[in-house]
Amino acid sequence: MDELGRAAEVLARAPSVALACHVNPDPDALGSMLGLAAFLHARLGTTVVCSWGNQPLAPPAWIEPLVDARWIVEAKAFPRTPEVMVCLDTASSDRLGDLSAQLARAGEVIVIDHHKTNPGFGSILVLDPAASSTAELVVRLVERMGGELTDEAAALLYAGIVTDTGRFQYEATTPETLRVAALLRARSFDHARLAQALFEQSSVGYLRLLGVALGRIQLDPAANLVWTYLTQTDLSSSGVDITETDDLIDVVRTASGADVSCVLKQQRDGRFKVSLRSRGATDVGAIALANGGGGHRLAAGYTSETGLEDSVNAIVQALTA
User: Which of 48, 93, 233, 316 has the fewest CB atoms lying closer than 10 Å?
Assistant: First the structure.
């Protein structure tokens, strides 16, 4: 039996399932986790609990009308020894943060992921780097299990696909991606309102912060790189949480003067989170992997252990080597 079939079989007979995704989750991580939870609860009556390794949790507003809030718990309330644990959109076990300790204690660990850099962990690994998103893989799993998705589950999974494909613009968008998206879109959810919640909910503070970041844009023609940065001082003075800046890289990547775009954002511990994107000529996933991170060929990231200047110099060196 293939891994997708094994996962379907285990989930079909599990009375309870604990689902987790990576820290600082994006819509694909949240959408795939919560969408699968909604399906299992509605289709099989499974008891589900969902979490991610941030403390405290800060669920984004877009999920509020789509999911039962009782399913989402703080990491400290996540089952210590889950019978079945599902890890979604998690490129490596350390990306689970505070939930990584549960892996060794779980009876079965199902990993569903689409990151090329995933080294492989868990007892059942559903991994397809060619998939546009983890949400796309969850839909395949649902189809294998049989039964209809609820409107809420479909909306959650659609959010994962539409964001990870850049609204169906990116290289990973395949005919299979569009088939799955059409299947989800056939359900009765407010597509326009969901898109607005995902893409058109920036605060005035963020727009001002965006101006700061764009004012710092640097172009390095020799490295074929365009980059900018934000500090903790920038964030605190604007009153913006760092999670609200996730889309900044998508603005920087529109610069036509370089193949690689980069945004460095200082975390509370002083380290810089590095987000990398490529227009197609550079494997930024390899750069991220060499620095302890991961991702895809054209979209990846990691956390730098050095200061801003040294972090940028390291990227330049990797691009000009």
Answer: 233
> How far, in Å, CA of 48 to CA of 111, rounded?
16
Give the number of other CB atoms < 10 A from CB of residue 270. 9
pLDDT in tens, 1-49: 699 999 999 999 999 999 999 998 999 999 999 999 999 999 999 999 9
| Of 132, 91, 20, 128, residue with least CA distance to 293 | 91
Q: What CA–CA distance (Å, rounded) separates 210 from 247? A: 10
- Provide the pLDDT for residue 238: 94
pLDDT tens sequence across 88-118: 999 999 999 999 999 999 999 999 999 988 9
Contact by Cβ (8 Å): 161, 136? yes
Residue among 230, 250, 249 at smallest CA distance from 240? 230
**Range(s) for CATH 3.10.310.30 in the chain?**
204-320
Cα–Cα distance between 295 and 287 in angstroms, integer? 10
Helix (H) or strand (E) holding 175: helix 175-185
The token pair at 162 is 């539409």
**Residue 32 has which token pair?**
């795939």
pLDDT for position 228: 98
pLDDT at 56: 85
Segments of the chain scoring below 50 in pLDDT: none
Distance of CA 148 to the CA centre of its chain: 25
Rounded distance between C-alpha atoms, residue 215 and residue 268, angstroms? 23
Whole-number pLDDT of residue 150:
96
If you write DSSP's letter for every residue of 211-273 in order, what string do you get? HHHHHT-EEETTTTEEEEEE-HHHHHHHT--GGGGTTHHHHHTT-TT-SEEEEEEE-TTS-EE
Distance CA 170, CA 280 (A): 10
Gap between the Cα atoms of 86 and 17, Å rounded: 7
- Give the class (CATH, top level) of 204-320: alpha beta
Structure tokens at 33: 């986790």
